[in-house]
Amino acid sequence: MFDDFFIRALVAGIGVALVTGPLGCFVVWRRLSYFGDTLAHSALLGVTMAYTLDLNIAISVFLISSIIALLLIQLQKRTNLPGDALLGLLAHSSLAVGLVVIGFLTFIRFDIMGLLFGDILAVTTDDLFVIWTGGALILIVLKLIWKPLLASTVNYELAEAEGLNPDRAKAIFTILMAAVIAISIKMVGLLLITGMLIIPAAMARNISDSPQKMVLFSIIGGLLSVILGLYSSLEFNTSSGPSIIAAALILFILSLFKIKQSIKLKN
Amino acid sequence: MNSNNNILVKLNNAGFRQSEKWLVEGVSLTVEKGKIVTLIGPNGSGKSTTAKIALGIYKNIEGSVEKYTTKVGYVPQKISIDWTLPIRVYDFMLLTETIEDSAIDEALSLTGVIHLKNKNLGSLSGGEFQRVLIARAISKKPELLVLDEPVQGVDYTGEIALYELIKKISDTLNCGILLISHDLHMVMTATDHVVCLNGHVCCSGSPLDVAKNNEYKALFGEKASQILTTYEHKHDHVHSDEGEIKKN
Prior knowledge:
The complex is a heterodimer of chains A (267) and B (248). Chain A is mostly helical and 267 residues long. In chain A, 83% of the residues lie in helices and 0% in strands. In chain A, helix 6 (125-154) runs antiparallel to helix 8 (166-188) and helix 9 (193-206) crosses helix 10. Chain A is globular. The termini of chain A are far apart. By secondary structure, chain B is of the alpha/beta class. Chain B has a six-stranded mixed sheet with strand order 5-6-7-3-8-9, sandwiched between helices. In chain B, strands 2-1-4 form a three-stranded antiparallel sheet, with helices on one face. The A-B interface holds A 28-29, 31, 147, 150-151, 153-155, 157-164, 205, 208-214 and B 52, 55-57, 70, 72-74, 76, 79-82, 84-88, 90-92, 95-97, 120, 140, 146.
């Protein structure tokens, strides 16, 4: 049944949405959207490494993104530069280096548009395996660190005082971020991955009153965005990434009406 | 003094330095099961820092902390919650430990905020939020309770009731309490041991001992000392009526 490229893309997209939903909530809660963006930009380097060394793209992207995340933590400790400046520095320099390296790899034909914005034609059966096993692992680990991560998101000192080890949870979450970018890069493209993390979660925030509900709605929003986005991508022959993100945006706009309603009800 | 088995947390000459400035240094104290230890001192004297050292929040400390329990309940002095996270009082009660619904209801009833159970945390007033914080800390039936000005922003009658509750909890749960409080009435009537801080331990002992101490008088003024000693006189009087002479 995975012979059809569209079915493959749909199955891949659903796998991605199941993972970006809950992770995206933490990205919004912990204000990590620019951090996610930086990791995604560095993914281009990972892709070039995959081509030159003949590695799996997801694994190679995961490795490079993790290294960039570690580098960021070291730079934060050793320099006096503010966090956003360091993020910008890493994001744009890794993107630039990635593009320069591509320039040297003249023997390989790159679909740059596909890398930046996602390409549903590029999803292979191997990718499906990586997305679903990688995704399942990410969700299992997230479930394990859920309590300390949520508690330290609410209040770091409370979590630390009551023995939950928030530093470890934070470090593990950083690795999960690198992993989710690695598995979604083919579908959504590296410029739009952060949108897939943030927009469904932002939509969910508008209609939720508890963390669990927000995670649930964020997953549902992500799934709907993938399905709507991929069908319109097929219909209008547009890149898959922008189509999915545009669908997510429409859902977000619809969720704004719900806020308006609840404000009216309160008055 | 009780046997060593009752010790929950012990600070040995502990101190914490932040960018070359000592926030507090040379603090030694012990919190035991069923005892209330109160930290008093002016603003910036290192009370909250001492509490955070005892809790293990600060890691690069001078001296040492020995902690003999993992069941800890903490009411921080300042808590800033980011409202991008939708969270109800009920979710907040389950934040660091999974507890039964009946225990949640009981704790919220004790602090008088059971009606807020399904309200969003962001919609509470300062006093209501403080009551929820106390409820959360006690609902997990901790062995060590660290309360950093737990009744700030609570109305006057509520304040007395909450302090009575804290005293009761210390008795019924037999838990040790490290309390930071400005309320000298509370310090006098419920505390077993007072530590007076001013960047270092300026004096410590039973409430009466501290009240008589000259350093304490210099720090808080003659009047504060009189408040404490007045309570002691009342106490003496009651006991002598019963024909008992008992010094605290």
